[in-house]
Amino acid sequence: MSARTKKELRGILAAVTTPFTEDGSAIDEAALQRQVERLVTAGIHGLVPTGTTGEFTTLSPEEYRRVIELYVKGADGRIPVVAGIGALSTQGAIDLAQHAEAVGADAIMLVPPFYDPLDLSTLKTFLSAVAASINIPIVYYNVPGATGIQLTAAELAELGQIDGVDYIKNTSDDAVGLAELLANHTDSIKAFNGWDTLTFFGIASGAEASVWGTAGIVPELAVEFWETLAEQKDLVRARELWKHLWAISDFLESVNYVAGIKAGLELIGEPVGPARLPIQPLPAEERERFAGILRNAGVLPAVAA
Questions:
Q1: Per-residue pLDDT tens digits for 63-118
Q2: Distance between CA 228 and CA 203 in Å, rounded?
Q3: 167 belongs to the catalytic site
Q4: CB 79: neighbour CB atoms within 10 A?
Q5: Of the residues 169, 190, 257, 262, which is catalytic?
Q6: Which among 141, 167, 190, 257 is annotated as catalytic?
Q7: Which of 46, 80, 166, 225 could join 137 in a cystine, given CB atoms 3.0 to 4.6 angstroms apart?
Q8: In 3-state terms, what secondary structure has residue 74?
Q9: Any residues with CB less than 8 A from the CB of 229 and at least 6 apart, and which?
Q10: Is 169 known to be catalytic?
Q11: Strand, coil or helix: 229
């Protein structure tokens, strides 16, 4: 194998949807390209397709690979693409990871098998096997709610000893664990925030990136927030921006996440089709509640009196 590549990932990495046709039967490639252009134009710092927000568990093997290809092609080297990789076997993950590398992804975000939880030793063996099969870096997707794998901050830091495992996306509401990772273990591995309502906390605590589904709906607001908090260190202004981003993030965590993201995109006039079954659309009252939150954030026009 050739030398392992290093890729600096920093800023707001939008966890992006997989657009589907109206009946949910196929990928809407035109809508996907529109989504890429909108996010790049807004200044988003990277794209993360085929993760939870991208409904990877509902994609056929052909669709899975195609979505990664389309996002890489759409980004066209302007911003990094971190391909979400999830399979129930080591070989399945290797096959997807190698495909992502072959089509030009800059890194992968790797979730471990998510039906039968792995112990720490088995997890390390899994990560080592995938890392050895590719040259691009790995973001370990720490999502205990889906995988059942509960690791301490010290155990998560141990994963950085594996060559190629450079980052963690921490999709956990354990703020104390994230604080410990950022305070004590940054020499071992870089932790990104991946829990929407902890975004302010994570960035303020030193996370160099946030993988954020909310950013796909309000990219300009998310980028302004990053610039204000992470780059300008303007805590007072960042708190004002965060009030709206908190409200959006809190809403999305109160409903089915994918259905909420897709409803939000439809509400702002950027539809990407439905969530795939069995996920149901948001009920009308939840859509209206979300519309009100987006109006308050200045994303939707105010309702005439």
A1: 999 999 999 999 999 999 999 999 999 999 999 999 999 999 999 999 999 999 99
A2: 11
A3: no
A4: 18
A5: 169
A6: 141
A7: 166
A8: helix
A9: 200, 203, 204, 235, 238, 241, 242
A10: yes
A11: helix
